[in-house]
Amino acid sequence: MTGRHFLHVPGPTNIPDRILNAMRVPSEDHRSLAFPELALPLFDSLRKLFKTAGGTPFIFPATGTGAWEAVLVNTLSAGDRVLSARFGQFSHLWIDLARRHGLDVVVQQEEWGTGASPERIHDALKADTAHAIKAVMVVQNETATGVTSDVAAVRRAMDAAGHPALLFVDGVSSIGSIDFRMDEWGVDGAITGSQKGLMLPAGLGLCCVSNKALDAQRNARANNPLRRCFFDFDDMMKSNKDGYFPYTPSLPMLYGLREALAMLFEEGLENVFARHRYLASGVRAAVLDGWGLQLCAREPKWYSDTVSAVMVPSGFNGTDVIKRAFKRYNLALGTGLSEVAGKLFRIGHLGDLNELMCLGAITGAEMSMRDVGIDVKPGSGAAAAEEHYRRADAQSLAKAAE
Fold first, then answer.
1. Buried b or exposed e, range 104-134, using 16+ CB within 10 angstroms
2. Dihedral of CA 118/311/279/384: which sign?
3. Mean pLDDT of 336-362
4. Of 47, 78, 266, 328, which is least surrounded by CB within 10 A?
5. Which residue segments constitute the domains of the chain, with CATH numbers given?
6. 138 with 170: CB under 8 angstroms?
7. CB 306 within 8 A of CB 142
8. Of 309, 329, 6, nearest in space to 173 by CA
9. Greater confidence, 32 or 400?
10. Residues 6+ apart with CB under 8 A from 13
């Protein structure tokens, strides 16, 4: 098919030409004297991304799932109890991973379309007077349902309960796109991947841990540790301190990561977050005001700025919309997963994108819905989004003129 493919799944995201060019490098010796000039600044830049002064970042040749595993197996012991809210496919998968490693997971089931409940987390920790719960696991942005949880509120709940549990946060589809503050929110393990807000191909599992988590790692090593080799923090730290890795890293990905971080910092992280919020609000205007449909997220407080999960009317299948969009209009939309399979389609709006790219996705989704028989008015979604973007831009120009 001619023309550019429109990639609007919530990851992998579009890769800017600037990053592709940065990754076009010849092989080099990853043990050379010059290699630390590439590697060491990456760790400093990742601290800036995670918003931490004293956290320790790690770069694994993996995905976000690998980073999930790395944080758990390094800081916990076999049989440890952890508390996790489940409200979507990815929170479910993290729970499954923890259980496969022999952890005792206490699951707080929440309605899909909502997020983690700080109140329920507080109550569970307050009741745990023996402090058997060693960690709380929270997905900041549940990609399957387009829901963002309030991590700061979770930390406040943990503090109010006076509980010493570690706080682990999955930021795979939020970090680099939605505000994340590791130190301010008291996060002990933050996790992300390269293929979403960082605008890279899949292939890097990134995490950052607090000093408290490293203390827990040392305790775990001495007390029935979970098995690890490839993901061992000790091996990484021994090599990373001098600017090297314990095994062969992906050179193109490291060069791409350097360029991606540079692009985010040039725009300014706060501006990146504001851009995502602005673009997402236009997509939501298309869904709610233009098409008259509903989001999977139950209330505005749950709305995600990186992905909108659009509920299709009863009697229709979201998979049909996705297939039509791909085959007829060269547009990739996200599918419904697990409990919401067939009930929705997802529009990803994160990474390297602007208003016209979002409008292209909205128009393609609108045509695809009409093609499969969903009664939405032609042009209604695009019109609602256009006016939203125009009004927002007009307000910005007015403020600038003051």
1. ebeebebebbbbbbbeebbebbeebeeeebb
2. negative
3. 97
4. 266
5. 17-265 (3.40.640.10), 268-401 (3.90.1150.10)
6. yes
7. no
8. 309
9. 32
10. 7, 195, 196, 197, 199, 348, 350, 351, 352, 353
Determine if residue 199 is left, alpha or beta; phi over 0 gives left, psi from -120 to 50 gives alpha, anything else beta.
left
HSE toward the beta carbon, residue 341, CA cutoff 13 A: 4
Q: Crossing angle, helix 355-371 and helix 380-401, to 10 degrees?
A: 160
Instruction: Enter the tokens of residue 286.
Output: 């298309």
Distance CA 139, CA 152 (A): 12
Q: Which amino acid is at 84?
A: S
Which whole-number Å values give the CA distances from 232 to 69, 94, 117, 152, in the listed order? Answer: 10, 19, 32, 29
* Predicted model pTM: 0.95
| Amino acid at site 42 | L
Q: pLDDT tens for residues 170-179?
A: 999 999 999 9
Q: At which residue do the structure tokens 């389609």 appear?
A: 345
CA atoms within 13 A on the CB side of 186: 15
- Tell me the longest C-alpha to C-alpha distance in the chain: 64
Q: 3-state SS string over the chain?
A: CCCCCEEECCCCCCCCHHHHHHHCCCCCCCCCCCCHHHHHHHHHHHHHHHCCCCCEEEEECCCHHHHHHHHHHHHCECCCEEEEEECCHHHHHHHHHHHHCCCEEEEEECCECECCCHHHHHHHHHHCCCCCEEEEEEECEECCCCEECCHHHHHHHHHHHCCCCEEEEECCCCCCCCCCCCCCCCCCEEEEECCCCCCCCCCCEEEEECHHHHHHHHHHHHCCECCCCCCCHHHHHHHHCCCCCCCCCCHHHHHHHHHHHHHHHHHCHHHHHHHHHHHHHHHHHHHHHHCCCEECCCCHHHECCCEEEEECCCCCCHHHHHHHHHHHHCEEEEECCHHHCCCEEEEECCCCCCHHHHHHHHHHHHHHHHHCCCCCCCCHHHHHHHHHHHHHHHHHHHHHHC
**For tokens 């490293």, what's the residue?**
214
Look-up: residue for tokens 């960690």? Answer: 135
| Tens digit of each residue's pLDDT (9 = 90 or more) over 272-285 | 999 999 999 999 99
Closest to 380 in 3D by CA, of 303, 258, 286: 286
Q: Are 111 and 298 in contact (CB under 8 A)?
A: yes
